[in-house]
Amino acid sequence: MSALLNDVDLIDRILAHVDGKSTDRGTSVWREPAANYTCPERFAAELEVLRRVPMAFCPSAALPEPGSYIARTTVGTPLLVVRGSDGIVRGFRNACRHRGMKLEEGEGCKRAFACPYHAWTYGLDGILRHVPGEEGFPGLDKEKHGLVPVTVQEKGGLVFVTQDAPLSDGALPDVPDLLPSDYVLFNKIEFDDKANWKLIGETSMEGYHIKALHSRSFYPYGYDNLNVVELHGRNSRIVFPFRRIEKLRQVPREQWSLQGRVTDVHQLFPNTHVSFLSSHAMLIILEPVSPSETHWVVYQLAPRLKDGKPLDLAEARRDANFVQDAGLTEDRQAACAIQAGLASGANTHFTFGHYEQAIGHFHRHLTEHVEKLKARQQGARSSATTAR
Predict the structure, then answer these.
(1) Domain check: are 197 and 336 in the same one?
(2) What angle, rounded to 10 degrees, do the helices at 357-387 and 40-51 form?
(3) Which letter does DSSP use for residue 2 in this model?
(4) Distance linking the first and last C-alpha atoms of the chain
């Protein structure tokens, strides 16, 4: 795993940028075809990629005890993710093995899952435990009729799901300990936007737009086009400093801390963002619905201790509401406006320059995965033809 900058080194870099009126810059330009935001075939390939890499499903804090579960559709597949009695998180396709009905909706805590249709009942480990009137199913092998599993891995305070045969290990090798066990989940919200999932994700991966787009929300507290950017593995970290970070010049270096002085965004390949703001953290999962529609799943969390003081939940909620009602709304509106603008046909491609290196990094890895998927599919077709 690539080592990320510690607080002191990162603050040094930020202050150097403040003094030099500069920012981190990439060394290449990425040109992304505009058709990749509208093309149904490209969208279908991206969905297949998302099913074949570890994709964040929820924070570990959303499954706090044995029996805690979340049932939701991700990348078109109904899934059921649950923490077992042994503390291990497991995932299953959310369908009864009798006649396919979804077992659960939403979230909660249970000791077992009974199908609402005929009450076939499964343990937290997915094993079929009970079939009413079992004598009516002669020869039924309950061991072969458990829930169909998907691969689940827990790392850095996040739960990741891989639905199908993997193309790669995705974000996992380079996921830091983002949400340790002292983080408390205090809210979850979901909503939809008429924009491609990539357009939405791009809004939080560069600070080149801060003054223009966020002139009344974020810019009064921060800087325009001043970021520290770290590319690590398939992921990236984009740090947006607040102006109050300059007060650290009067503080001994050994007391320097980023907390409350930056927005620290971690983009986890492919569709997840973990952002640390003034008084809370936000896990955003962008669920592609169509080439022009995205479903947001947002978890809001806060540490039990901040600067040695117990969690002030009211302060965390105020911070979350400000971000959601101001800057996040502006980002959403921008993404939807770009999606609408694609219908003009004015652009054959979008150009991401040196200030937008994290976006180019993301697209480079997504394109590599799409090409790898196509090669694998072509190989499978060739093998099938040869077998005939």
Answers:
(1) yes
(2) 90
(3) P
(4) 45
